[in-house]
Design goal:
Number of helices of chain B: 3
Order of helices and strands of chain B: HHH
Strand content of chain B: under 5%
Order of helices and strands of chain A: HHHHHH
Number of strands of chain A: 0
Oligomer: heterodimer
Largest sheet of chain A: none
Low-confidence stretches of chain A: none
Mean pLDDT of chain B: 84
Distance between the termini of chain B: 116 Å
Strand content of chain A: under 5%
Mean pLDDT of chain A: 89
Radius of gyration of chain B: 38 Å
Distance between the termini of chain A: 65 Å
Largest sheet of chain B: none
Radius of gyration of chain A: 25 Å
Shape of chain B: elongated
Helix content of chain B: over 70%
Helix content of chain A: over 70%
Largest interface: A-B, 54 and 40 residues
Number of strands of chain B: 0
Shape of chain A: elongated
Number of helices of chain A: 6
Chain lengths: ~150, ~110
């Protein structure tokens, strides 16, 4: 009975050990990505099988794009603040409101053009097949027909 | 004499028993109570037998080398399969989140504001 119990417990410990070893071994790349300095770029390298040279080029494009993106964020925020001010207490669509809305549309178009340009540059640094896959994926994520309509407040 | 007395007593007893009639009524829900008792006894027997089977398996079958090897192999397979399945789910979740994060970082309309 004692030997049987020992085997029973040993089997359970072996199962738990197998679970832990396989789980930690198979998730190590995901953990490394999460721990990296720029997890989103680490993901991009992994997802689109980029070589070190391709990844370096993509990282440079990414770093060059971010300041433009931040500048655009500031302009969008400022535009939103202005629009909200105009909308407070408004009961008619005044020329100022029309102008602010037109400016917001222009900003959105500029922003989308800038993004698309960046995505295309990035796709061109990848091998052709991966570049096509990247563009298809990113268009689906950032250029859906209902773009901006499901934004959270 | 000694042998005949008990026989005589038995005859008397038999006579008394033949003449005796039970007039007392059964207690309420007597039949239901009897069945309940039978059921609970059967359930207890079933539990005992399951435990006996388990104890027998541990005590006599599991220590056999073939059985022990098979048992450990099955548990190892179950553990490894569970680990692999869970790892796939975790990887898919992490990759999905990082992909979303990549787009959020680049899209001013999705970038989280401070």
């Amino acid at each position: 009975m004692k030997r049987g119990l020992l085997i029973l417990v040993f089997g359970l410990i072996a199962a738990a050990a197998a679970y832990g070893c396989i789980y930690f071994a198979c998730t190590s790349s995901a953990r490394n990505m999460e721990r990296s300095e720029k997890p989103e770029l680490a993901w991009l390298k992994d997802e689109f099988n980029l070589s070190d040279a391709e990844f370096k080029h993509v990282s440079e494009l990414h770093s060059a794009y971010l300041p433009q993106c931040q500048e655009m964020c500031k302009m969008i925020d400022a535009q939103n603040v202005e629009l909200q001010k105009l909308l407070v207490g408004a009961t008619n669509v005044t020329p100022e409101i029309e102008s602010a809305l037109a400016q917001a549309s222009r900003l959105r178009a500029e922003c989308q053009t800038m993004m698309l340009r960046h995505f295309m540059q990035v796709s061109q640094t990848m091998p052709p097949e991966q570049g096509r896959r990247y563009l298809a994926w990113v268009k689906e994520k950032a250029f859906q027909p209902n773009y901006g309509m499901s934004e959270k407040p | 004499m000694k042998n005949s007395e008990p026989i005589g007593n038995d005859e008397k007893l038999s006579k008394v028993l033949r003449e005796w009639k039970a007039d007392a009524a059964l207690p309420p829900r007597f039949q239901e109570g009897v069945w309940r008792k039978i059921e609970s006894t059967s359930a207890a027997c079933a539990t005992m037998s399951l435990w006996n089977v388990f104890a027998h398996w541990i005590g006599t079958l599991l220590p056999r080398p073939v059985m022990a090897t098979a048992y450990v192999a099955v548990l190892l397979t179950i553990g490894a399969t569970a680990g692999l399945t869970q790892a796939h789910q975790t990887n898919a979740r992490v990759k999905g989140e990082l992909g979303e994060r990549y787009v959020r970082v680049l899209d001013p309309y999705q970038t989280p504001r401070n």
